[in-house]
Design goal:
disordered C terminus; 2 domains; Jelly Rolls; 12 helices; 14 strands
Length: 438
């Protein structure tokens, strides 16, 4: 589990204003749970399947055609297009499958809680015939109640009357409000969202496992250029640790939240999450743009990208050195020690040092050597530095060749760290670049 700074906190009420949310919750960039805050919604009482909620939903929007997710791997719903397809689906048919489920199934293996009991509603015979034995493979995932960019996609817009928009979002740039509804136990694959997310459970129960963005290297994100770049490539049912070895430790960086009906979970943008839903769970989620993204000017993108990658590469270089640095260079490398060693080699074995530097120094060794030089430079005068480097490079027939060997090794080390960063955080594999010709 991550440290206290990233610990998820629970609250008994929603933030009262956008300023309250911004200063006390959003600024932490950590999820937050709001217990029982949705009980004032009409949806909380009117959509309740055990209290006639399915009849209410069918009456309100039963004639609508919605876009459903048809999974090839149910009960797991993976985000990539190879594992599912979006299909037009009559909302009334889906509701009938839910009624059938309530009538015939008593689930004693729910994800979160024991079931509240079976409802009395049943599907009529005509609609029941439309429901295949694989109805559990259909999931109403991200069905728009309100879509800001494309209002024509809001097939369930009439349900917005049953939702109370939280006061702290009144000034936020909303992206969409969506319905999520499953008629059988389901699991979503591990993924992150590019927006802030308020996940609101109206009926049923969800278990959510969350990871901060800093843990993405344990989750092997899909390549950034792929169609499912915000999803983990680790199979949540049967992970292949020979392919994804770091995933063994992923749960050490996770936190788990159980959401009952009436609860809401704020998931900041970029936080990975994996969701397990009980039988017949109904939820609404609200996506909106974060202040950081809203205020980030597009002309600054290239600069921020380079700064962020540079910081990640520096961290990766430090990590590699921790494992390998001691093997390549003595821990103590002050000016007098190094100067004495160079003088001895110059007197006795000058070509040995040259061979070591030009042909045997590894990229890690080059990085550690130059870092030690930098540390030494901080402790000596400019005159002493010049004297040391004259002495050091005097043993080489070609001083520029020696410097190139050290710098090339250092850059190879940095490139390896860069490759590691791209693979760990962006899911990108790079082949070693060809040497540039000047």
């Amino acid at each position: 589990m991550e440290g206290p700074a990233l610990e998820i906190h629970g609250f008994e009420e929603l933030p009262s204003s956008s300023e309250d949310f911004s200063s006390n919750i959003e600024s932490r960039n950590v999820p937050a749970v709001f217990h029982g805050c949705l009980k004032g919604w009409k949806a909380f009482s009117k959509w309740n399947p055990s209290n006639g909620g399915l009849d209410y939903l069918q009456e309100r929007v039963g004639s609508s055609i919605v876009e459903a997710m048809l999974s090839r791997s149910a009960p797991v719903f993976y985000g990539d297009l190879r594992s599912h397809e979006r299909v037009p689906f009559p909302f009334s048919t889906f509701i009938s499958s839910c009624k059938r489920r309530l009538r015939s199934t008593v689930d004693t293996h729910s994800v979160c809680t024991e079931p509240e009991g079976c409802g009395t509603v049943v599907a009529n015979s005509d609609e029941a015939c439309l429901i295949s034995k694989d109805a559990h493979q259909v999931y109403l995932a991200q069905v728009p109640i309100s879509n800001i960019k494309n209002k024509e996609r809001s097939s369930l817009e009439i349900l917005q009357d049953d939702i109370i928009m939280p006061a702290f979002l009144e000034r936020s740039p909303l992206a969409s409000i969506n319905l999520w509804m499953n008629n059988a136990r389901s699991r979503s694959s591990t993924h992150y969202d590019p927006h802030h997310n308020l996940l609101c459970v109206v009926a049923g129960c969800k278990q959510v496992v969350l990871w901060p963005p800093s843990a993405s290297s344990f989750l092997y994100p899909m390549p950034i250029y792929g169609e499912a770049s915000n999803h983990s490539s680790v199979d949540i049912e049967s992970p292949d640790f020979s392919m994804h070895s770091r995933a063994k430790n992923s749960m050490n960086h996770s936190q788990k939240v159980i959401l009952q009906a009436g609860d809401a979970l704020y998931i900041p943008e970029g936080w990975f999450h994996q969701v397990d839903s009980d039988d017949l769970t109904i939820a609404v989620n609200i996506w909106w743009q974060s202040n950081m993204m809203a205020n980030m000017s597009e002309h600054m993108d290239a600069y921020y990208l380079r700064r962020i990658i540079r910081r990640l590469v520096d961290k990766e270089m430090d990590r590699i050195k921790c494992f390998n640095g001691a093997l390549f260079i003595p821990g103590r490398l002050d000016r007098k020690y190094m100067g004495n060693q160079v003088m001895k080699k110059q007197h006795n074995f000058p070509r040995t040092l040259e061979a070591l530097i030009l042909h045997m120094l590894t990229p890690v060794g080059a990085e550690v050597l130059t870092q030690k030089f930098d540390e030494m430079d901080q402790q000596t005068t400019k005159e002493e530095q010049n004297g040391f480097y004259r002495l050091f490079y005097s043993v080489f027939d070609d001083q520029f060749a020696a410097m190139d060997a050290i710098l090339n090794g250092k850059e190879l080390f940095a490139f390896q760290a860069f490759k590691n960063v791209l693979e760990k955080y962006l899911g990108v594999n790079l082949d070693r670049p060809q040497s540039s010709v000047r």
